[in-house]
Amino acid sequence: DIQMTQSPSSLSASVGDRVTITCRASRGIRHDLEWYQQKPGIAPKRLIYEVSSLQSGVPSRFSGSGSGTEFTLTISSLQPEDFATYYCLQHNNYPYTFGQGTKLEIK
Amino acid sequence: EVQLVQSGAEVKKPGESLKISCKGSGYNFASNWIGWVRQMPGKGLEWMGIVDPSDSETRYSPSFQGQVTISADKSISTAYLQWSSLKASDSAMYYCARDGGLFGIDYWGQGTFVTVSS
After folding, report:
1. In degrees, to the nearest 5, what angle opens at C-alpha A103 toward C-alphas B35 and A17?
2. What is the mean pLDDT of residues A38-47?
3. Which residues of B69-98 are buried (b: 16+ CB within 10 A; e: fewer)?
4. pLDDT per residue as tens digits for the range B55-104
5. Which of A34, A89, A94 has the CB atom closest to B59's CB atom?
């Protein structure tokens, strides 16, 4: 199985900050990497697919980058509604696997 | 509009069986695999497995192999997740999600909360 190591597990930041979350795959996954945002009690919302493609309707302050085994999600200027938990997901190989999640909290 | 609509919340006792559902609409249901994701209270997302509705081929994550059964009935555009004997540790939110192939997991159901308690 491909392991996805996500860091940090939690992050405190302020409105307007730039934040970066990283996922490392245990082996190469080409461009088969997505990022999700989840708020309590609600299904995950896809932000980024194919490493860097922005899901329709998602603000442009979200961006993704990386290749092979190292991937990042960047939020350029945090807004109050961005405080949530974020997950990466690889869909290159079965079983698909999620990162452990990053809880983004208000400082 | 593509939609995945899941069955409602369930409250069961340990040892009971359960089958929850995920009904697709707005697309050719047989054309896309459907996966299931578990989220235990306060925990992260876990990929359980996936089914191809066109021929019912399934792929399970090792942690869930033998613990659950994933199936699909393309005639009624519905995928299923079932347990033969529930445990308290099966209490969780369960999501179905559509595999869009190269475009990844593109649609999610709203989730089904399962509570297993004596």
Report:
1. 125
2. 95
3. bbebebeebbbbbebeebeeebbbbbbbbb
4. 999 999 999 999 999 999 999 999 999 999 999 999 999 999 999 988 89
5. A94
